[in-house]
Amino acid sequence: MMSKAHIPTYDICSLSMGVQVTEDLLVARFPDYLEAHQHIHFPHRHSFYHLALFTAGEGTHTIDFETFPVKPGQFYFMVPGQVHSWFFSGKINGYVMNVSAGFFNAFLQDPAYVERFPFFSGVSAEGVVQLPKAAIPVATELLEAMLQEMKHPQGYSQDMLRLLVLELFIQVTRNTGQAPSGQEPPHNYVLLRNFRKLVDQHYMQLRLPKDYAALLYVTPNYLNAFCRHMLGKSAGEIIRDRVLLEAKRLLINADMSIATIAWQLNFADNSYFTKFFKKYAGVTPEEFRKNIS
After folding, report:
1. pLDDT (tens digit, 9 = 90+) per residue, 50-62?
2. Any long-range contacts for 187-195 (C-beta under 8 Å, 24+ apart)?
3. pTM of the prediction?
4. CA 232 to CA 225: how far, in whole Å?
5. CA triplet 87, 91, 92: central angle to 5 degrees?
6. What is the CATH T-level fold of the domain 186-292, as seen in this structure?
């Protein structure tokens, strides 16, 4: 594990593996990717969307301090900024995809289109998808088609790759029952996405549901009831969880004092931050740091 260093953040070019049709997309088979980047099992972040499909092997994959057992048919979807690490036992097989946030911008009218997919919510558990057995060949065939397109580019290769990536996202959503069923009004998904985006942008300054309700033009009571309906949590819990997650991310850096982290997260003082962290994480910041060092 990391101790005396910041969590490294990799951009898509730093993990390049040779000739690419576009600097915004990398697709590789897992053994090749691990061989080229043997250091990346330590906790790190990406500035891009990072996907991993496992077809063979075992181990663990930790995303934002939540650990999942690796199983064949498991597809991991990570958004920019999430902290993750993996530890494998035995031979691992599958695919890795790195795709920039701007890859689709020249192709789609809606720049936020990709955020509609449920596995790109930024919540660790929602980004871990178990593919049904029949859906695994569908996903692998699309990934192999991307590899061939990148190896032998033709006219409109970038657009073909965009189509293949989008088809992969749609097929995974359909084959795992995550596609909207029609029972939930479409505007509910838009409101949820907008609320989560606002929390991610303003959690350091805005801590009360009423602040976000005003930005969303709804009442605080409506926002709380809506969040409980959609996620089983109140709006306040969602805001609190985001603050707690960032605190954990910062605590990995042993060079930052607890007081500095408290100040950066906009807590009134170190004591208040410590009480907050222990109440919701179950341990003090110092104990959490010791456990991950």
Report:
1. 999 999 999 999 9
2. 188/226, 188/230, 189/116, 191/216, 191/218, 191/226, 192/226, 192/227, 192/230, 192/231, 193/112, 193/115, 193/116, 193/121, 195/223, 195/227, 195/235, 195/238
3. 0.85
4. 9
5. 60
6. Arc Repressor Mutant, subunit A (1.10.10)
